[in-house]
Design brief:
Elements (H helix, E strand, L loop, with lengths): L7 H13 L3 H18 L2 H17 L3 H8 L2 H7 L3 H17 L3 H15 L5 H17 L3 H14 L5 H16 L5
Helix pairs in contact: 1-2, 2-3, 3-4, 3-5, 3-6, 4-6, 5-6, 6-7, 6-8, 7-8, 8-9, 9-10
């Protein structure tokens, strides 16, 4: 049995390959087509996943408003389906798009919502990624102590720390202890 080259699964797979090869225009077309096909099939969850992937590609292409349009509404789809890990990723993608469009306060709120979703699942890698993004946002927003707390959380989330991460953790512990926030 041969696989349909126009199936949404195949379109998504090809779009992901195009993205990994840096062929962003092809990736955009592929994820858009996959989303349409999933929706035609009534598969709202996989359509939302394709929309999230599309958003990531559009951000890579510096098309922040298009990325925001692509990802809007997807966290709610995953929330209704009770898929916490995907909801957290969608909130992270939404936050990244909001940040890129200058909506910094909303971006920070979305990152924090994503972390709340991750409390119910054991995905330390995603937690670390979101905490790092939140820390960068807080640092750029003039909140160095909040950024320090977030990056400490990111380091704590890593199951295996590199030598560099262990040194950073020790360095971050010092000012936290001095400020009475020690771990």
């Amino acid at each position: 049995m041969t696989q349909d080259p126009n199936s949404p699964e195949n379109l998504s797979r090809e779009a992901l390959n195009a993205y990994q090869l840096g062929a962003y225009d092809d990736a955009v077309r592929g994820f858009q087509a996959a989303k349409r096909e999933f929706l035609d099939r009534g598969d709202e969850i996989n359509a939302a996943e394709a929309a999230n992937n599309l958003s990531v590609v559009l951000l890579k292409m510096d098309q922040s408003h298009e990325a925001l349009d692509a990802v809007k509404g997807t966290p709610e789809i995953f929330r209704r389906a009770d898929i916490n890990q995907r909801e957290a990723m969608a909130l992270g993608n939404l936050a990244a798009a909001l940040e890129a469009t200058g909506e910094v306060k909303q971006a920070e709120e979305c990152y924090i919502q994503a972390l709340t979703c991750l409390e119910e699942c054991d995905d330390q890698e995603t937690r670390s990624y979101i905490l790092q993004a939140l820390s960068r946002l807080q640092l750029r927003g003039g909140k160095p102590f909040d950024a320090l707390t977030s990056i400490q959380g990111a380091l704590d989330s890593q199951s295996r720390r590199s030598w560099r991460d262990r040194i950073l953790r020790k360095l971050f512990d010092l000012p936290a202890r001095l400020l009475g926030r020690g771990s």
